[in-house]
Design a protein that fits this description.
The chain is an all-alpha fold. The protein contains six helices and no strands. The protein has helices at 3-36, 43-66, 76-97, 99-111, 117-122, 129-153. Helix 4 (99-111) packs parallel to helix 6.
């Protein structure tokens, strides 16, 4: 074996060892984060906050949709521009007024073992009213699931009423 081949082999071994060490450190940090997670809300407070946020976001969505500019087919370009600006404003308001709280509540539920794939996909960037409603409804569903879990465990005397989750948005025809 030539000297240069032996150097390349040693270099590859060192690189592999470095990758293993880095992976071990990243795993340790990840485990440490999970172990040190400290919930900021009690279970019952999380249920209440989740339901409040769900209702508030539902109201926001319905209000924004009710006040949405109408389409003027005679002035199509201006109408589309107005609608685009209004939709962007809705997104900005969500980001400012709801986004951080929804993310916090979602993380609180997740650290208790409650997750929702639809919420996970929509909460960071609900691009339209359907996305906003999805976030509101799925957050409510998680709240009801935790509420039912608390009731079953006997931690809180919640009545066993609607265990299917919150009612959805009103149906329009």
């Amino acid at each position: 074996m030539r000297r240069s081949d032996s150097f390349v082999i040693r270099l590859a071994i060192y690189a592999a060892a470095a990758v293993l060490v880095l992976a071990a450190v990243l795993l340790a940090v990840s485990v440490a984060r999970e172990v040190t997670w400290k919930s900021k809300l009690s279970d019952t407070a999380l249920v209440e906050e989740g339901l409040k946020a769900s209702a508030s976001l539902t109201d926001f969505t319905q209000g924004r949709q009710a006040n949405e500019p109408s389409v003027d087919y005679d002035n199509w370009n201006k109408s589309v521009q107005r609608l685009t600006l209004y939709t962007q404003e809705s997104q900005n308001l969500y980001d400012r007024d709801y986004g951080p709280r929804i993310a916090f509540l979602r993380d609180e539920f997740a650290h208790r073992g409650f997750s929702d794939q639809e919420l996970d996909q929509a909460y960071q960037n609900p691009v339209n009213y359907i996305g906003l409603r999805t976030v509101a409804v799925r957050l409510g569903v998680l709240s009801y699931k935790l509420k039912e879990s608390i009731r079953i465990k006997g931690k809180q005397n919640y009545p066993s009423t609607n265990t299917e989750g919150p009612p959805g948005p009103p149906q329009t025809r």
